[in-house]
Amino acid sequence: MQSLEGKKALITGGSRGIGRATAIALAKEGVELGLIARSEESFQSVEKELTALDATFVTAVADVANEQEVQLAVKKIEDKFGAIDILINNAGVGVRGSFLELPTDEWKKVLDTNVMGIVHVTQAALPAMIEKNKGDIVNISSMSGLKGTEGSSAYSASKFAVIGMSESLMQEVRPHNIRVSVLTPSLVETDFTRGRDNHDWNPDKYTQAEDVAEYIVNNLKLEQRTFIKTAAQWATNPF
Ligand SMILES: NC(=O)c1ccc[n+]([C@@H]2O[C@H](COP(=O)([O-])OP(=O)(O)OC[C@H]3O[C@@H](n4cnc5c(N)ncnc54)[C@H](OP(=O)(O)O)[C@@H]3O)[C@@H](O)[C@H]2O)c1
Fold first, then answer.
1. Of all atoms in ligand 1, which is nearest to the CA of residue 19?
2. Mean pLDDT along residues 118-123
3. Fewer beta carbons below 10 Å: N end or C end of the chain?
């Protein structure tokens, strides 16, 4: 196991849900954090908790779907920390609706956020990681990236794309000592699932964001650099 103390992590969607829980878990390991989300207000709660932990962090407002905003946000974070050691591409949105009835605007929003968002952030942060010849990229897909279900075609398409993109990237950056992992959680208790009509608050059915965060932290601590194996392991749903 390696210590994460002093490493620099960038977490998209770090203000709420899985991203927020991961930020807190990493802060407890002594990791310094750059957090991205779309609104300043959404950072308030995580900022309070990180301050109480005496963590070093910076927040940056950006919509990951917007390439220019992402470039400015990543620059702000790199100006403070230098190259990122751990990039967690977590920001994502869900949408439900039948294939035929879901407006194309909604399709585009989901694909622009969940797929192009990862492209924008990774393209901005990766050059400095390559220069450093070291790092971890963790992409958050979903169980919907392994199996399509009724009413979830756009979301599922985006999450399948995340897995394929991650596997390709993994092979490209392996020579630079950068590990790429892709995680496929099932139902996690966050605003994302709370907003659904059929949410029934069943703790046996929902994983907690803190459990996902713990899983991410434990995997980051592994020294093994057998990238494909790690990604395959993460691509089978651990929950
Ligand atoms: N919850 C689940 O059951 C579940 C299961 C499998 C996979 N996932 C995936 O896990 C990831 C996190 O989900 P979650 O449940 O933690 O969601 P969440 O509670 O809704 O939090 C989403 C986070 O992403 C940020 N965000 C959303 N759109 C963004 C954008 N365009 N640009 C920048 N930041 C953005 C949000 O902040 P702002 O709103 O302020 O931007 C927030 O910090 C997503 O990729 C989701 O698809 C979730």
1. 16
2. 98
3. N
